[in-house]
């Protein structure tokens, strides 16, 4: 019922024209859907990210029952679905008897087999739910992969990892960083120093300048990192 409700609500918000959507428009739609559902969190989405045209009103629904990501779908001709991660979103309720040991998150896999040296384009990639166990360097955002060159041959359906891409350092060893901690919709920032270099999506260690603690983080942008859940 939630999915149908959002489809009807968004029909009033999206022009009925087969024009391409951009990241700014989709961000507004997702934020409106979150507000309508009484949810917090913010979409992790570049305003420069392009989406295919949709001749009907796109639908937004919680992904796999939770608000840690949402599904944006177009039911018109040539329909499509994209998954958008929500920072600070509410997880799906855990079913009785179901273990939460196999945590999953939205990440990228190859839509086709590609040789070493390929410069990645949007059509080369798909977003899927991937088990995080044993995979700390999954590439999650399309915009961080597009334009990067592959360092090795990869098969269709294979998860894209940071180590598969040529280096694009966003954090330099010994350089200053902003450490972001997101908890329940609250965002806290602190100054720190990188103990190692890192690319977007890569797990590294930094020192909190205030406390002196070593913190395990994920690189999210130029001199910006986010604390990894349950790892300090």
Description:
The structure is a single chain. With 232 residues, this protein is mainly beta. The protein folds into 3 domains: 2-87, no CATH class; 104-164, Type Iii Antifreeze Protein Isoform Hplc 12 (Alpha-Beta Complex), CATH 3.90.1210; 169-227, Roll (SH3 type barrels). It is built from 3 helices and 15 strands. It has helices spanning 2-10, 23-36, 142-145, and strands spanning 20-22, 42-43, 50-53, 59-63, 66-74, 80-87, 104-110, 125-131, 169-171, 176-183, 186-194, 198-199, 203-208, 214-221, 224-227. Strands 10-11-13-14-15 form a 5-stranded mixed barrel. A hairpin with a 2-residue loop joins strand 4 (59-63) and strand 5 (66-74). The longest helix has 14 residues, at 23-36. The chain starts with a helix and ends in a 5-residue tail after the last strand. Mean pLDDT is 79; it is low at 1-17 and 94-101.
Topology, pairings included?
Blueprint: H1 2-10, E1 20-22, H2 23-36, E2 42-43, E3 50-53, E4 59-63, E5 66-74, E6 80-87, E7 104-110, E8 125-131, H3 142-145, E9 169-171, E10 176-183, E11 186-194, E12 198-199, E13 203-208, E14 214-221, E15 224-227
Parallel strand pairs: 10-15
Antiparallel strand pairs: 1-3, 2-6, 4-5, 5-6, 7-8, 9-12, 10-11, 11-13, 13-14, 14-15
Short key terms for the protein model shown above:
232 residues; mainly beta; Type Iii Antifreeze Protein Isoform Hplc 12; SH3 type barrels; 3 domains; 5-stranded mixed barrel; 4-stranded antiparallel beta sheet; 15 strands; 12% helix; globular
Please give a quick description of this structure.
The chain is mainly beta and 232 residues long.
